[in-house]
Amino acid sequence: MTDQTTTAAPDSRLMTAARSVLLLRESPVGVFGGLIVLTFMLLAIFAPLVAPFDPNATILPFATPGTANPEGGIFLFGTDHLGRDILSRIIWGGQRVLFYASAATISAYVVGILMGLAAGYFRGWLDEVISFVANVILSFPIMVLYVLIIAKFGASGINIIFAVVFASSPGIMRIVRGVTMDIATRDYIAAAQTRGEGPWYIMLVEILPNARGPLIVDFCLRMGYTTITIGALGFLGLGLPPPDPDWGGMITETRAFVTGGFPHMAIFPACAVSLLVLGFNLLADGLREVSLRD
Amino acid sequence: MLNLVLRRLGTMVLIMLVVALLLFLINEGDPRLIARSVLGPYAQDEQLDAWIMQHGYDRSLFVRYFEWISRVLTGDLGDSIIYKRPVNEIFWDRLGNTAILAGVTFLVMVVVALVLGVLAGMKEGSTQDRVISVFSIATTSVPEYASAVILAGVFVYWLAVLPGTSSMTGGFSVVELILPVLVLTLYGFGYIARMTRASMAEVMTTPYIRTAVLKGLPYRHIIMKHALRNALIAPFTVIMLQINWLLSGVVVTEFAFGYKGFGALLLEAALRRDIFLIEACGLAAVFVAVFTQTVGDLGYTYLNPRIRFK
Amino acid sequence: MSVTEHAGASGDDAPVLEISGLRLSYYTRAGEIPAVMDFDLTVRKGESVGLVGESGCGKSTVANGIMRYMGRNGGIVGGSIRFKGRDMSEFSEEEIRRIRGRDIAMIYQEPMASLNPSMTIARQLTEVPMVHEGVSEEEARRRAREMLEAVHIPDPNRLMASYPHQVSGGQQQRVVIAMALLSRPALLLLDEPTTALDVTVEAGIVELIAELSKEAGTSLLYISHNLGLMLEVCDRICVMYSGEVVEEGHIDSIFSWPKHPYTHGLFGCIPLPHADKNARPLVAIPGQLPLPHQRPTGCYFGPRCSFFEPGRCDGDLVAMESVHTDDDPAHRVRCLRWNEIDHDAAVRVEETREPVSVGETVLEVDNMRKYYEVRETSLAALVSRGSPRQVKANEQISFRAGEGETVAIVGESGCGKSTFAKVLMGLETATEGEVRLDGTDLGSIPVKQRTPEQLASLQMVFQNPNDTLNPSHSVGAQIARVIRRFGIESEPARVQQQVFRLLDTVKLPRDFASRKPRQLSGGQKQRIGIARAFAGNPKTVIADEPISALDVSVAAAVTELLMDIQREHRTTLLFISHDLSAVRYLSDRVVVMYLGQIMERGSTEEVFAPPYHPYTEALLSAVPIADPEVEKRRIVLEGNLPSPLDPPKGCPFSTRCPRRLGSICDTDPPPVQMNADRHAIACHIPLEELRLVEPVITIPERDALPAGEGATG
Ligand SMILES: Nc1ncnc2c1ncn2[C@@H]1O[C@H](COP(=O)(O)OP(=O)(O)O)[C@@H](O)[C@H]1O
Ligand code: SF4
Ligand code: SF4
Ligand SMILES: [Mg+2]
To answer: Which residues fall within 8 angstroms of residue A182, CB to CB, at 6 or more apart?
Structure first.
């Protein structure tokens, strides 16, 4: 890496990043998605400051949205059956979801990229083995796989990360493998080979940077999908342990009250998941649209 | 072509064997855990050992794996621990229920997705395209468990036109099927629609469509005869892959609506460590997924004359 | 043909197509891109008009504009297009649709892509008359079959039942031509119809087009970047530059008296198969085509023109003016100084070069073979029995190259040129035989096991400018990496100096070091590729079609550059090419390959004169020559290149050879006959007989320059 940058203009990397941001401006939909994601990230980072109440404090059960808190303030989104403020729980839950989703997705990317590069560049038996393992994993309906893994190893943050890496790195591997096989036929790869570069140098320095376009788009999509997954596990009772808030768990705890007259308890967290995922999906779509131009 | 079919089927069998091995290792890798889940948490160590000896769990994994495989192949799925009955008696009913739910959803989803996808991709960049695209992104962003409560709020609580659960206790009921199908379709159709759109849009920019236009063919003729045929080849694989995703959705949706399908059964079995039930559900799910994927691959090669007439 | 004939033919009829003042634009985020400006063109009945110019000058845009098929972001901004006297802008969408395919048909560059992959050829052909003339399917099939026969398809019935991918490129293009002609259109637009084809296949298609236009009375608008092809097809040509016509006239007139400095420059940068680097160095046109929205004021060609006169050429837009030459009263040119310029004087100034003396043998290839095994997937192959099939990509390759020598390897696609390059570079290893560089056998040493010295001494220049540089890294970083790898320099400041020095060598400004490849033009990227190859002072450089993706004016500059550096360093250059003119121009020795085997090798003079190998003879005849004075014997090869998976048993060329002797050619590999010390021909025909063959190209008894005499006007 360092070799490549010494003679490059010092700010070229910054410029590239800046240009991508500017380009995204051209897709209003993408900007909108980006803003949603950004908002959730800010809320997550500043959760202690912005959440109006303690998410686990039981204050006033079954308060509808807008009810005043006897201890001061307003339950903007109401409270749940135990009297906990839903808005605060959504904000704190967002922090947890974003943390686990990023940790899991980034780990899955590291694994997927390394596998995909190796499979796509070395080809041969290594490719066949990696691809076969990927096929085996991908042939599980993904939720079935999660249920099996979590039920076996128990519901905990680290196990959720492990399950996501296990289940989604094969998909990432396939994308990287495809792009790698394509890029490996380019003349500049032959040029690198004929000046005696080692395989990992070629994979990481010559190939990977050129694969970033599709990978960034896919990363956003996968962040959305992992958010959904973490919620789904919570919903099925296999998620992060209570009482700390987690959106899926909030829905499942309170969904019985939806038809019983208190739909807000489950619907607000449901909207929160959907909105965050929408943000990721729109961002991905905007990035793809922008990258297809030129 | 025949060669290809045989090879794909061979791969399918191989994958099933490996998947079965994984399932087996997860569930039956440790004999003491099996004994514990059968005999309950209060069983003594001696009791466990005795049970293990008695049921042949002291033999090597390898032997037990092949014995288990051959039993499964002859149709013996073992006994359920929670229901205290042969798995066969419970399992097939549940699978049938899921087949109904997934089948109806699949039909609705594919039709909606293809129509919208083609309409959007036909005129890339038009308002029609933008509206459809944003709509399908939006619906794909609402996971089943979220739409289940949102739709329940709307149709069950406020409008009070649909039942909130779909346990079908009073026999099969079409009304109870509406919400689960809606939930699954909303979340699932967007992906196929977007793939179809992409494929259609790509075909519309190919030189052979330009040739068709410059041959002076009418627009309808170009779309129907020249574009669709090529544009639907790629989505076919996606559609078959979607069945795999549908099975995932089924687990969540059945749980959400109390629908008595195999997804709910799997969840119950997994939470209560009902080994043979887990194995049966896992095998069934993977079989369906692998089978449809094989069909998808083969169909793709069949539909694509460039491969078919090699 | 004579000019009077042509003038007579045009007198009777109204023009089929009359374009005047046409302006076409694309609308992008960067704003309006005025791709075509003030374009005039007239095509009369039965006439074939050529439109020639560098890529990006707007040729395709004109064709699409005529078809009113400008895509979503393109549009007609001004001017008129009249078809058979009627203004096309008055036509409704429906009328346009009826004209397309029936009155005006169009043929594109990529035949494979132009045909629908999932419809049989029969259906794609029959729908034309069925839609336009409402004929029955049976009738349509009958017409389709007839038309396929007319384009010389040997077995129309079988072909009609096929899908496009099942037939060869040449046949596909014949199908596309048949499809275009099915409704007997009045006008046929051809946009680079042979650019994607091999030379010998191209020759057949060009002959067919010329033949059809004579017979059917269809008018042609033939678009190409190749002046040589124009000569074989067209009556008149228009030279386009940056969105406008800069010169037009009868073909003889343009070729004999090019008036515009650009046209003149074009001739100067085309290598001719009867001139070499020492006798007639190529003169590149400096600079590059401006982007449509960045044109200079005044004459668009100004910045590249050596006759540019400040204050005059950069003033108002330049208008077309008539030039009355003896050959063509309608010859027109867009240059303010056309009658002041003495091209003759300018040409004479050029110096000729001293031939390089060839030193000791550097590279020796001895009976090298490279076979590929074609297997299914590797795991599956382990299980299945049966011997894998072999592709004999290279068979018994032997030749030598000395220090400072340029050896060309010529042949059509699939003849094994690139495989040979890969073996040399160590990206593949030879199956058998030796490749000795300075005495060490490298043929069996894969690139991973070569020492840095071995790597540095053998470098490569690649074909595709867009592929040759890594888009993610700056140009300077990529060159610097090579310098460090080969241990030339390691201290950062000195590496930087070395990078600058190399940029100087390839005549690029030093600040290019910080640029990313996408900020460079094709020719500039190729220059960087050359700089990279020469960074480690190589003994031998392999250039794999280094200029085939470039425009003529740019290609000439890159060719000259490559040769200058080679000369200076006394590098051995292996020049891989399919272009015989380029080969003739720059090489000392030539190796002609066909289906992985050497058909003929010898010095350039020996190969380009009888005795020829029958394949060399056919190749030579297929080269389009941009010189009307040169006489060429026509040899059009039948059939297509056989698949390398299933080559003919005896002589590889036997399926297409016009001089095939008989069954001996099918069964026995031909003997290698030595005509002179290092001139070998692999053929069953005895040398004595081959010596009697007439030369393919006859050069007239005069100065070989095409733009020679009487240019003073
Ligand atoms: N769809 C398009 N959008 C924007 N610019 C275009 C488009 N097509 C062509 N151009 C530009 O118009 C000019 C003329 O292109 P073209 O007609 O393809 O030239 P040619 O056929 O001579 O190579 C070029 O500068 C090209 O970049
Ligand atoms: S007008 Fe001037 S700049 Fe343009 S071609 Fe003529 S001499 Fe050159
Ligand atoms: S050996 Fe026969 S087929 Fe081959 S080139 Fe000579 S004459 Fe032609
Ligand atoms: Mg063009």
So the answer is: none
Q: What is the mean pLDDT of chain B?
A: 89
For residue C139, pLDDT over 50 is answered with: yes
Q: pLDDT (tens digit, 9 = 90+) per residue, A120-136?
A: 999 999 999 999 999 99
Cα B178 versus chain centre, distance: 19
pLDDT tens-digit series, residues B161-194: 888 888 777 777 888 899 999 999 999 999 999 9
Question: For residue B267, which residues of chain A lie inside 8 Å, CB to CB?
Answer: 147, 236
What distance in Å separates the CA atoms of residue C675 and residue C696, rounded to the nearest whole number?
18
Look at residue A64 in the predicted model and tell me its pLDDT: 84
Q: State the chains in contact with A (3 or more Cβ–Cβ pairs under 8 Å).
A: B, C
Is A9 within 8 Å of chain C by CB?
yes
The residues facing C573 across adjacent strands are C406, C541
Average pLDDT on B264-280 reads 88
Task: Tell me, letter by letter, the H, E, C secondary structure of C397-461.
Answer: EEEEEECCCEEEEECCCCCCHHHHHHHHHCCCCCCEEEEEECCEECCCCCHHHCCHHHHHHEEEE
CA distances, C217 to each of B288, C13, C44 (Å)? 63, 12, 10
Å between A110 CA and nearest CA of chain B: 24
pLDDT value for A204: 96
Q: Indicate if the pLDDT at residue C116 is higher than 90.
A: yes
| Distance between start and end Cα atoms, chain C | 23
Question: What CA–CA distance (Å, rounded) separates B299 from B4?
Answer: 11
On whether the CB atoms of residues C338 and C323 are closer than 8 A, the answer is: yes
CA distances for A133 relative to A137, A138, A167, angstroms: 6, 9, 11
pLDDT above 70 as % of chain C: 92
Assess A28–B contact: CB distance below 8 Å, yes or no. Answer: no
Alpha carbon of B297: minimum distance to chain A alpha carbons (Å)? 13
Where does the pLDDT of residue A17 fall: very low under 50, low under 70, confident under 90, or very high at 90 and above?
low
| C-alpha span between C587 and C407 (Å, rounded) | 6
CB burial readout A105-136, b (16+ within 10 A) else e: bebbbebbbbbbbbbbbeeeeebeebbeebbb
- Contact residues, chain B, for C113 at CB < 8 Å: 206-208
Instruction: Report the distance separating Cα A249 and Cα A86, nearest Å.
Output: 12
Q: Is C40 exposed, middle or buried (0-12, 13-18, 19+ CB in 10 A)?
A: middle
Cross-strand bridge partners of residue C87: C82
Q: Is the CB of C337 under 6 A from ligand 2?
A: yes
In this structure, which amino acid lies at residue C498? Q
Of ligand 1's atoms, which has the minimum distance to the CA of residue C223?
A: 21
- Exposed / middle / buried, residue A82 (Cβ in 10 Å: 0-12, 13-18, 19+): middle
Residue C7: partners with Cβ closer than 8 Å, 6 or more residues away: none
Interface test with C, best of A121, A187, A215 (most C CBs within 10 A): A187
The answer, for A210 touching chain C at a CB cutoff of 8 Å, is: yes
Confidence of residue C639 (pLDDT cuts 50, 70, 90): confident
pTM of the model: 0.88
Hey, what are C345's tokens?
């004087």
Residue B208 has pLDDT above 60, yes or no: yes
Residue C251 token pair: 């073909």
**Contact at CB, B289 and A259, closer than 8 angstroms:** no
In the three-class reduction of DSSP (H, G, I as helix; E, B as strand; rest coil), residue C613 is classed as coil
Subunit contact B216:C101, Cβ cutoff 8 A? yes
What are the two backbone dihedrals, phi and then psi, of residue C62, each rounded to the nearest 5 degrees? Answer: -60, -50
- Residue C71, pLDDT > 70, answer yes
Ligand 3 atom 3 nearest Cα = C654
Task: Indicate the residue of B215, B303, B305 with minimum beta-carbon distance to C163.
Answer: B305
- Interface touch B225/C105, C-beta < 8 Å: no
